[in-house]
Amino acid sequence: MKALIVYGSPHGKMSATYRLGSNFAKGLKDQDWAVDELILDDIEIKHCLGCYVCWRKTPGVCVQKDGMEEIIQRHKDIDLLVLAAPLYFYSVPGKVKVYWDRNMPLYVSEFQKFSGQAVKGWTDSFKFLLISTCGFPLKENFDGLVISAKKIYGPAYAGEILVPMGTAISQDTDGTKYTEFYEFFYKAGKEYGSTNNLSGETKKTFDLMTGTDSMRELIKSKQ
Ligand SMILES: Cc1cc2nc3c(=O)[nH]c(=O)nc-3n(C[C@H](O)[C@H](O)[C@H](O)COP(=O)(O)O)c2cc1C
Description:
- Helix content is 41%, strand content 14%.
- The protein has ten helices and five strands.
- Strand 4, helix 6 and strand 5 (157-163) form a beta-alpha-beta unit.
């Protein structure tokens, strides 16, 4: 099985979403998955021109020649796509939005389906998981992001793992303080790697861990 993890924080490897997502990736690898890890900030991509050439004139191929060509290639033949990105203004950092817009060539099959052609849509061919962190306490902060991701990934959307008050994890620069979280994400990756799912029990454990009172207590205990 093959997974692609896309990291969307401008802080790259020094971000909470990288620390959590890379532990999830480790769990998948320990279940013998081939895992490709892509830090968006390492790759130059220009914004979408909105020309629709990738749908109409050269289906599946963007007119712009930049880092997105490599990114698109890395999305081919995957079983799982994970986006690990922080919440920025109830959505994603600008680079992730540019990446989403530049996914247009991958959506040519959705466009063809919409136009009545009997093709399999791109989002029918893999599963998608969202990992995100935010600064404020309430999970409701993620509502807009979750709705967007569900719309974008459609049938591929398989769930989310969301950490409010995650700025504390961003600041764990040597990755030694929030071991409970790193272990949880590792175990979640292992579980997904062996069952293609996250169990109700795992989700329940995580909900308890990330409740406002539990988070406040945990952060206080690490100071
Ligand atoms: C430009 C910007 C916008 C942000 N918007 C929100 C927001 O809408 N809600 C929130 O709770 N936190 C917000 N945050 C806080 C980040 O989501 C939080 O610090 C996150 O844990 C950073 O993750 P990272 O270390 O993976 O980059 C914002 C931070 C920045 C810099």
